[in-house]
Amino acid sequence: MTPASQGLLVSAGHMPAAEVDIDTSLVRRLLAAQFPQWADLPVEPVDSAGWDNTIYRLGADLAVRLPRRRMGAGQVEKQHRWLPVLAPLLPLAIPVPLGKGVPTEGYPWHWTVSRWLGGEIAAVAPVADPGQAAIALAQFVAPCRRSTLPAARAASSAAFRWRCVTESPGPRSTPCAACLTSAR
Prior knowledge:
The protein is of the alpha+beta class. 28% of the residues lie in helices and 14% in strands.
């Protein structure tokens, strides 16, 4: 069931226009050229509330994320650098990259193949148990706060300066997952 079929708004009316055309045919061509081991798997578009990437389900266990705007393209390098480092430290699964596609004729940016993580779109799915959701979020954020990873925020994008939402007043040297993802 898609968010739209459930009567949920996905903010598509306010979504910025894509800077590249992405469709199932393009995804299949990219996979065939760069990841032939996955080229025969079924490819299905995924409804998403995100603005920067288009997501395709690849078989039962994988996902393909392709930036649809230049702004999102810069995240691919960061995700490939930091998500594998963070994954063993966190109590919940995160989309660790399994393959990094390269720009090619017909698609201008790096892109990612990762493990499929099932669930609901957090931006539109109603939270059944807010208390349990708060506990799960705290259990996810706590390891980030205790982390001894290098302070990656210093290398954050010049276009955006993200402030860690877990940060208390004062200096901080261990960024959370959001800060690491937004850092270069």
